[in-house]
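Why do we bother with holo predictions? Because pocket geometry can differ from the apo form. Keep that in mind while you read this record for ribose-5-phosphate.
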Amino acid sequence: MKPIVFAMPGNEAMADQICRARGWEAGRWETRRFPDGESYVRFLCDVQGREVAIVCSLADPDARAIALYLAACVARELGAQRVGLVVPYLAYMRQDIAFHPGEGITAVHFARLLSSACDWLVTVDPHLHRIHRLDQVYSVPTCVVRASPRIAAWIAANVPLPLLVGPDAESEQWVAEVAAEVKCPFTLLQKTRNGDRDVQVSVPVIDAWRERTPVLVDDIASTAMTMIAAVARLHEAGLNDPWCIAVHPLFAGDALAALRAAGVAGIVSSNTIAHESNRIDMSEPIADAMAALSGAADALRS
Ligand code: R5P
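The structure, written out:
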């Protein structure tokens, strides 16, 4: 069944591109906040018996997640046959272990909340580290879209003789895949994080690749301290200014300006979060994943 696609505020461009990629209908609704900060949603078209898809990237998640949850619940209340969440950036995946006594695994609790309000979920490269697959925490069918092919295509078109660099062990899953597609070498640094903005990264050994242009690839740029530390080490190793590519450009506070000031060739991101660094469009593979999940649900019913 073809979904009718609703965009939470700030997600209009992504929703529009998804609809245009597939010829799907854009849903009309009113969403706003009451003066006291509570969320309001009113559907302005009939969703009875429809496959509803709600697009909402979850940067700044505490402000957005309840609005998304309520919108999905209301769609169900109004008789939607199924409700899918399209969450290009899925928050709360990094607290995947209790790092210190007294903490909890908030990834699990957040997944429980979203799972309770939807029938399927599509996202792009969630931060899978100690949780290896989304279905370990999400109880509804999920589809993970990989950004690697599109990142590889961007690098192949824009960076001659690249050397891919992952700033930490966790980034291997992205960096290795992109390097294989671009057919170039990659290296991984070692990272130690002592606090939100206190990050140490090892100096790379790059003797064989001195003539290459380094391209840092990471899933998330939040404070950008990981990338800033990596850029400093690449400079120390005698390499040129690197390109920095993030799948999810969170760039909290002055992070973007700080990364620019570190001495980079450029900063590029995918459009899982609307940001001025967006150069890599994920709308088509997201639409493909939505079609696959909707179709799979149809097949199960028939
Ligand atoms: C964590 O391991 C992630 O892969 C990123 O490296 C991390 O979230 C980046 O955070 P920040 O930009 O705050 O250093």
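Residues 167-168, 170-171, 199, 218-226 surround ribose-5-phosphate (CB under 6 Å).
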